[in-house]
UniProtKB/TrEMBL annotation:
Protein name: Uncharacterized protein
Taxonomic source organism: Pistacia integerrima
Lineage, top ranks: Eukaryota, Viridiplantae, Streptophyta, Embryophyta, Tracheophyta
Boundaries of the shown chain within the full protein: 39 to 304 of 592
Length: 266
C-alpha cells in the first residue's frame, strides 16, 4: 500500500469504482445460490437430491451459515432467509470497509459460501458435495427504516407465495401428474384456491406446515445467560452474552416484531 503512494502507478487508483453507501442509508446485502434450480443448467438442488418442495437439511444449513455470519461480522444486526437466499442488515452507523458496497458484497458472499461448503457434511452426511456451489449477491441501500421494513415484507411475502405454489406443485407431481400438467392446473389460481386444493385433494392444512417453510428464518442476537466458569464452591459464574438466535416470525416487517426487538435498529 505504502509503496503505491506518490509512485507513477498511483493514478490507476482513481480508476477504482467508487461505491460507498452513504449514511444514513442502511446497508442490506442479499446473497442467493447460483443456479440452484434453473431448468436449462445444472441444478444444484437436483444434483444433490434436495427433497421437494422443501429440503429441511438445506434450510438448516443456510440458517447455520447465517448464524456464522452474525458471529463473524458484529455489524450485522439482523438477517432473514428462505430457500437459497439470505438478507443481511448492517447497523445504521456501520463503518465496515468504509461502507464500500463491493468490499462488503464480496466478503459476505465469499464467507457465506465457504461456510456453506465447510458445514455441508454436518447437514448432508449421506450426500457428497459434487461441485463447488456459488452465491451471487447485491447491496440494497435502504433510505429509511420504512424502506427496510417494506423490503423485508417483500422477501417474506415471496417466501410465502413461492412456498404455497411449490407445495401445491409438488403434491400434484407426487400424486402422478407431470410437471407440465401440475403447472397447468395451478395457472391463474389465487392463494385461496391453492389452500383449497391442498385441503380438498391432499388433506393438508397449509397453516399446519412447519414455520420454517412458511415463514422463513430470522437470525439476530439476543442476550442469553452463559455460565463462564464455576467458583470453588461450585456456584456458577454467569455472564450475559449476545448470541445469534434463529426465529420463525409471522410478520418480520410488522410493528410488533420491531418493537419487541428495539435494539436491532440502534
Ligand atoms: P485486507 O483484508 O485488507 O486484504 P490483508 O491483511 O489481507 O488485508 P494484504 O495487503 O492483502 O493484507 O496483504 C496480504 C499479506 O498476506 C501479504 O502482505 C503477506 O504478508 C501475506 N501473504 C499472502 N500470501 C502469502 C504467501 N503466499 N506467503 C506468505 N505470505 C503471504
Ligand atoms: P439464480 O442463479 O438466478 O439464483 P436459481 O436457479 O438459484 O437461479 P432461485 O430463484 O434462486 O433460482 O430459486 C432457487 C430454487 O432452488 C428454489 O426455487 C427451489 O426450487 C430450489 N431450492 C432452494 N432451496 C431449497 C430447499 N431447501 N429445498 C428444496 N429446493 C430448494
Ligand atoms: Mg492482498
Ligand atoms: Mg438462486
Ligand atoms: Mg433464490
Ligand atoms: Mg488481503
Amino acid at each position: 500500500k505504502s509503496k503505491m503512494a506518490n509512485s507513477r502507478y498511483e493514478y490507476v487508483k482513481s480508476f477504482e469504482v467508487e461505491d460507498e453507501v452513504f449514511m444514513p442509508n442502511l446497508i442490506v446485502v442479499r446473497i442467493d445460490g447460483r443456479d440452484f434450480q434453473r431448468w436449462y443448467l445444472i441444478r444444484f438442488s437436483q444434483v444433490h437430491e434436495f427433497e421437494k418442495p422443501n429440503d429441511e437439511r438445506a434450510l438448516n444449513l443456510m440458517n447455520s451459515c447465517a448464524v456464522a455470519m452474525l458471529e463473524e461480522y458484529p455489524d450485522i444486526v439482523f438477517s432473514y432467509g428462505y430457500s437459497d437466499e439470505y438478507s443481511f442488515v448492517f447497523k445504521k452507523t456501520t463503518k465496515f470497509y468504509q461502507r464500500r458496497a463491493s468490499k462488503i458484497l464480496s466478503l459476505t458472499a465469499s464467507f457465506f459460501t465457504s461456510m456453506y461448503v465447510t458445514k455441508w457434511k454436518e447437514f448432508f452426511p449421506q450426500e457428497k458435495l459434487r461441485y463447488a456451489p456459488s452465491f451471487h449477491s447485491r447491496v440494497i441501500s435502504c433510505a429509511s427504516i420504512e424502506v427496510l421494513q417494506t423490503y423485508l415484507a417483500w422477501r417474506q411475502n415471496d417466501c410465502h407465495t413461492n412456498n404455497q405454489y411449490s407445495t401445491c406443485l409438488w403434491m400434484l407431481i407426487k400424486s402422478g401428474k407431470t410437471e407440465k400438467e401440475a403447472e397447468e392446473i395451478l395457472k391463474g389460481t389465487q392463494k385461496q384456491d391453492k389452500n383449497e386444493l391442498l385441503f380438498q385433494q391432499f388433506g393438508i392444512n397449509y397453516k399446519n406446515l412447519p414455520e420454517l417453510f412458511r415463514r422463513g428464518s430470522c437470525v439476530f442476537k439476543t442476550e442469553v445467560e452463559d455460565i463462564v466458569k464455576y467458583h470453588e464452591d461450585g456456584t456458577p459464574v454467569k455472564r450475559l452474552r449476545r448470541k445469534p438466535r434463529i426465529v420463525h416470525s409471522e410478520n418480520i416487517a410488522g410493528r410488533n416484531f420491531w418493537s419487541e426487538h428495539p435494539c436491532l435498529l440502534k
